[in-house]
Amino acid sequence: MSLPAALADAQIAAEEAFVALSSTSTRCASPQPSKLNLSDDIELTPVTTAPPSSENQDVAHAPNPPRVLKSRLQKSRETKQFITLCWLVYLMGWNDGSNGPLLPRIQQVYGVGYAVVSLVFVFACVGFILGALSNVVLSERLGFGKVIVLGSLCQLVAFSIECSAPPFPVFVLAYFINGFGLALENAQSVGYVASFKENAETKMGIFMAAYRAGALSSPLVATQFAQMRHWNFHYFTSLGIAMINTAALTLVFRLRRQEECLAEIGIASEPKTTTERSHFRQIFALKDVHLLAAFILFYVGAEVTIGGWSVTYIMNVRGGGPSSGYISTGFFGGLMFGRIALLWVNEKVGERLALFIYAILSIILELIVWLVPSLVGDALAVSIIGVLLGPMYPIAMNHCGRVLPRWLLTGAIGWIAGVGQAGSALIPFLAGAVASKGGIKTLQPVLVGILCLMTMLWALVPKSSRRPD
């Protein structure tokens, strides 16, 4: 073999050896990438297929959390919580519905006029406003369960004072204590029901109807006590209902915070804002809060004025007898019926438009009560006005849940309700002050004006959400 041929054969052999060595090293290194790929597959599979990871991702980025299937136990607990809150709001309605039939007797017993007896509304209003302001701070420090029980204890104290028929200043002070407790209960309960995810509008309507059920039944009892010697014994009935309320709230919610109570029924708490501003500043910086508060002020004011002063109006202007107190029953019964019976109308035409329709019809009926001198006709018109006014409050509360941030909802509703309670004192007191000058016949012009202002304010409330979330 020649030298060139030998060199060529050696070069070819070297190249083959190099290729073989490279292939061997590649095969030796390949198990490590293969192992990593296998490990990656094992780790990535749950992220892709398992529901928990995808749900957590959706909750973090989606405006509406995904629907979570609840167990039978969670549904049972939710039902117990909802019934307990309905009993609470029943007591609130019972308290408010008692005023109309008892006002003439209170005037008679204490020897006071329209303006002075209206102080019961004023002191209840002051207590409610202070309670609404305190609610924001107490909610952060004490939590839902303790605050709502504190409100119920205030009612126990108030009814204990009232049932003894104390001197008028002390009697009025009891209304202040009662108003403070009502503010805490109202804000906490409405905010809690607004946190429900399934059938939220229907539950809010039933919840508000429970208030009307209390306002419907209390005039039936209060009218009877108003004609008795011991008229103040009516408050013993209120005290008994309040005791049941306090016991139920303590046993069902066990003084726990709202997040814990909602987690027990399968509802995750809403994420809170990261801003350093206090809840007060965040709430008061929202224009929508003030618009809704102004609307609720005139709505509640008109509602309490009709329920409270219509009995006196029918007795003095239309010549009704002692049984005129049952007109309050018709009015509050209409409110309860309207909140349930008109749910399908709200859904059919839309809640915003439905409220405009109800408001315009209410104004027309108030004009009839004002201008048509008929005892039976006026009583019937007042009941129909109750039907039309009934859905308005739950519609407004549902709208709060749509346009206000979730993490501020309880505090904002507390403030809105507090301003509304100011209307429950301001408007009846205004009606009483005007009546002391021009007679109770001035009631209807005042109510027509209030309903018109209320309608205009609803037109200013935004249609859709301005929330960043």
TrEMBL record:
* TM stretches of this protein: 109-130, 142-161, 167-184, 205-227, 233-253, 291-314, 326-346, 353-373, 379-396, 408-431, 443-461
Major location category of this protein: membrane
Instruction: Give any Pfam family that matches.
Output: MFS_1
Bilayer topology annotation? Multi-pass membrane protein
The Major facilitator superfamily (MFS) profile domain, residue ranges: 81-467
A GO term for molecular function: transmembrane transporter activity
Q: Where in the cell is it found?
A: Endomembrane system
Arranged from A to Z, the UniProt key words for this protein are: Membrane, Transmembrane, Transmembrane helix, Transport
Ranges annotated as biased composition (Polar residues): 26-37, 46-57
- Region (Disordered) residue spans: 26-65
- Known InterPro entries for this protein? MFS, MFS_dom, MFS_trans_sf, MFS_Transporter
GO cellular-component terms in the record? Answer: endomembrane system; membrane
Kindly give the PANTHER family that the UniProt entry links to this protein. Answer: BYPASS OF STOP CODON PROTEIN 6
Q: What family name appears in the similarity comment? A: Belongs to the major facilitator superfamily.
- Report the protein name in the record: Major facilitator superfamily (MFS) profile domain-containing protein
Source species, please? Hydnomerulius pinastri MD-312
